[in-house]
Amino acid sequence: MSSSTLAKCTSSSHTHTTPLHHPSFVHAATASLSPLPLPQTGKEGNIVKWDLSSGKKLATFYKSRPEQHQQQQQLSSKQKSKGKAKATDTLSDVKGHTDEILALALSTDGKYLASAGRDRRLIIWDADRGEWIKSFQGPMNHKDVISALSFRKSTHQLFTASFDRTLKVYDLTPSVMGYVETLFGHQDTILSIDSLRGDNCVSVGARDKTARYWKIVEETQLVFRGGGRSRIREMLEGGLRADDDPDGGDAERGQGLNGTNVAPKNKERQEEAKSFVEGSLDCVAMIDESTFVTGGDSGSISLWTTQKKKPIFIQPLAHGFNEVHSSTEGLIQTPRWITALAALRYSDLFISGSWEGCIRLWKLDNKLKSFSLVGEIPIPGVVNSLQIISPSKSFFTPRAGVSSWLSSSPTSTAALPADAHPALVVVGVGQEHRFGRWLSVKEGGAANGAYVVGLLPSSDSSVSSRTLS
């Protein structure tokens, strides 16, 4: 998609949002490039499959609760306490999850659905028929919670990330359908992973404050360090930060959402101390094979390129402040951390989410050196997952016998410019964060479910600057 076409799309005044409600806190929702199925999951451990064309529920994959497994666990604990031999594990016979599901991934062709979560199991499903294919668990697989999944585009190669600080690669072609290798390097739990068509991926390691670019074939990795500035660390790495930047300064910083400049290039130390220190990198999204963005608990979104060790642009306080009134300290302001990121592949558009009641759309400049805010879409609740896909125009056209959820949209695809490409944003939201219960958001109509937002370009330039709504 060209930049000019995408600019029209991001500045459009016409969107249509459809909520798909879920009985529990939604962790993930994903769709394929041929967007008919929409799998969705939550903390109750079930997977719900929706039809994006009609908005109807197609099937539900229920959480497994085998009585035999529960009895075996009790017997195993008794035998271990008495020093007897270990009991055999019956989990390998269970065709489903036994705990919370934290991540979903759908292959580009829509054939395979991968799911994983707190039960440390990676399960592969037939997405069309809704049938279990294979479970990966035990030796050679993850030893802790599986937190993120990503299919390499246009292939059946799957990347997985875990709290055990490793990434694993699986080949799901029918002739192989198995584990390939393990990638080591992170020093803390891995919270997010993303990949494109190339044989590489990018991951972020929470409080090790690193983003790692993995080159699978070369068996190497590039390490990009976020967080606060450390003069000692920079000296140990072979030079001061000023050596990396010809201007002798830090990465360029954008404006805060309140309109104030936050830490420009030549800011004095007194002003620099006011900025929030990033203690964790929580999410990542690839723009192209050499450019990606990360978000963390400081509320900043950083733009990276594989050609530089430091971020080339930082947008502080991307989702503003979370305000809490204290009886002793008065008003306490803390930045809302970035809970999800997603990019329209190989374009100049990406989106971010938090829990302020909306998702934000950002546009990169032509040289991929910075980005700016171009729109907002009201989405109540905690944003736990994001995805942007670009289906064909025919998907947005109501068909005979199908009551399209886009039929009420004020914009018809017949009136779109010839070079325009509509896009879909899939948002998984909940009243709680997917990894815990630190947040409880119920204001503004927050509900557990998924929102599907149609971004339809507008040919009317008079409304091109309006906020998406």
Briefly summarize what is shown.
It comes from Macrolepiota fuliginosa MF-IS2. The protein is mainly beta and 469 residues long.
What does this structure look like?
By secondary structure, the protein is mostly beta strands. It has a single domain (3-78, 88-463), classed as Methylamine Dehydrogenase, Chain H (7 Propeller). Helices cover 8% and strands 39% of the residues. The chain is built from 5 helices and 31 strands. Strands 18-22-21-20-19 form a 5-stranded mixed β-sheet, with no helix packed on it. Strands 1-31-30-29 form a 4-stranded antiparallel β-sheet, with no helix packed on it. It is globular and about 55 Å long. It starts with a helix and ends in a 13-residue tail after the last strand.
CATH class: Mainly Beta
For the secondary structure, the number of strands is 31
Strand content: 35-45%
In DSSP terms, counting alpha (H) and pi (I) runs of 4 or more, how many helices? 5
Q: Could you tell me how far the N terminus lies from the C terminus, measured between alpha carbons in angstroms?
A: 23 Å
Topology of helices and strands:
Layout: H1 3-10, E1 14-21, E2 26-29, E3 37-42, E4 47-51, E5 56-61, H2 67-81, E6 101-106, E7 112-117, E8 122-126, E9 131-136, E10 146-151, E11 157-162, E12 166-171, E13 178-184, E14 192-195, E15 200-204, E16 210-215, E17 220-225, H3 231-236, H4 241-244, E18 252-253, H5 269-272, E19 281-288, E20 291-296, E21 301-305, E22 313-315, E23 321-326, E24 330-335, E25 340-343, E26 349-353, E27 358-364, E28 371-378, E29 382-389, E30 423-430, E31 449-456
Parallel strand pairs: 18-22
Antiparallel strand pairs: 1-31, 2-3, 3-4, 4-5, 6-7, 7-8, 8-9, 10-11, 11-12, 12-13, 14-15, 15-16, 16-17, 19-20, 20-21, 21-22, 23-24, 25-26, 26-27, 27-28, 29-30, 30-31
